[in-house]
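From the pipeline queue, job 12 of 40. The input is one protein chain; the requested action is below.

Action: predict structure.
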Amino acid sequence: MQSDAGELLRYRRSVGAEAVAVFADVKKKHSAHAITADVDIAETAKAAEFFLADGVIVTGISTGAPADPAEVQRVSASVGVPTIIGSGITPENIRRYEIADAFIVGSSVKVGGLWSSPLDEERARNVVRAFAK
């Protein structure tokens, strides 16, 4: 996927959607890590903020894998926009991410914890209960 902040922001303005937030995934879990391994995640987050991202998303290394809490801390301390956890949130680990501004929850609230499965209402309730605590 090739990103172009200028093109995206111009399009957002042209369709009158300035109220629609744009979040940038700075972990790049689906890209070649060997190529980007030497790029610090906090620097990537700062670049996303510079290019007017409304928030930055930190994920784990694959779908459903938890984000590294130390990376979340570094990113949050480096930017002035919201830091969002984009993968791996469970009732057991949600407290490790108290610094985050928001969570994207998917696999952990699906039947068997599999992203492609239907929603498991009890698993969803468990995440909500853990968040409330």
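Job complete. The longest helix spans residues 121-132.
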